[in-house]
Amino acid sequence: MNAFDHDDQYPQALSIAGSDSGGGAGMQADLKTMQARKTFATTVLVAITAQNTLGVQDAFSLPPKIIDAQFASLAADLAIKACKTGMLADVTRVKTVVTNLKRYDFGPLTVDPVMIAKGGAPLLSDDAIAVVRDELLPLATIVTPNLPEAMALTNMTITTDQDMQRAAEQLQARGTANVIIKGGHEANSDQVRDFVLLENGRSFWLSAPRIETIRTHGTGDTLSACITAELAKGASIETAIRTGKQFVTATITDGITVGHGHGPLNHWATIDEQEGHNEL
To answer: Does residue 144 or residue 280 have the better pLDDT?
Structure first.
């Protein structure tokens, strides 16, 4: 348990992830999102990438000892109310994170099973996927895979709405209370449709217009970070998911130009807190 857990402290959230030197994804996207959503962001750095909008040029995973020390340092002082994982690099780092999440109570856990960068570079080794599936997912309050990640975690081919629903059910059966499978990789669709399956059995689709742009680097990080920030503020899981979808849509719609490849989102974007979401 945390040494300090005072109710009067400002909402605090934790990103457990890798660094994106280009600033568009990874821990940098998490920090920007949590700040935008008025949550104090903390970090456990797992790996460092040399990365820009054109791709990932190099990567270095941190020793487990310093990962352990970061967890211990946060637990000794801060009142973290929700946490998330992003890029975890390899089996050793995934197992180190799992051990620490079992050791410390940092509130609801959002797992963004980051596996492939926008430019196509692998960000999670093949042998680590099984560890994520078998050891990390059972700890998660919510998991947020895109279609390729959901296929890797379930060994399913997902091409239809029914496939997405079955994949979500399989992920929930593995121990994750809530699942959102993101449909952004669907081809030939003018809508981005995500399937949500909640712990209470309720399920629904979230939809937003597809925006033709290559400036979508960090969408998964931003969605999961926004959900985490909302949970840290005490929102229900459904409200957190809906706010996350709304925020990501705004960051893409109100885009900015940075770099020469898969550009980042606009984390300055604002949303109408009273506006509802399209539900199919």
So the answer is: 144
Half-sphere exposure of 27 (CA within 13 A, CB side): 18
- Among 24-28, 65-69, 103-107, 275-279, where is mean pLDDT lowest? 275-279
Could you identify the residue written with the tokens 């492939």? 116
Tens-digit pLDDT profile for residues 166-205 = 999 999 999 999 999 998 765 567 888 999 999 999 999 9
How many other C-beta atoms lie within 10 A of the C-beta of residue 21?
A: 15
Distance CA 74, CA 67 (A): 11
- State the DSSP H helix or E strand holding residue 45, giving kind and residue range, or none if neither: strand 40-52
Question: What integer is the mean pLDDT of 68-78?
Answer: 98
Helix H or strand E segment including 177? none
Q: Taking CA 78 as the corner, what is the angle to CA 75 and CA 80, rounded to the nearest 5 degrees?
A: 85
Identify the DSSP state of 264. B
End-to-end CA distance of the chain: 40
Structure tokens at 259: 């770099």
Angle (CA) 56 58 61, round 5°: 115
How far, CA to CA in Å, does 278 sit from each of 120, 163, 223, 250, 273?
A: 31, 21, 17, 14, 14
| Cα–Cα dist 59/172, whole Å | 32
Q: What is the token pair recorded at 60?
A: 């270095």
Q: What is the pLDDT of residues 153-162, one digit of tens each?
A: 999 999 999 9
Closest CA to 244 of 154, 43, 110: 110
Per DSSP, what are the bridge partners of residue 207?
A: 193, 278
Token pair, residue 190, equals: 């003018």
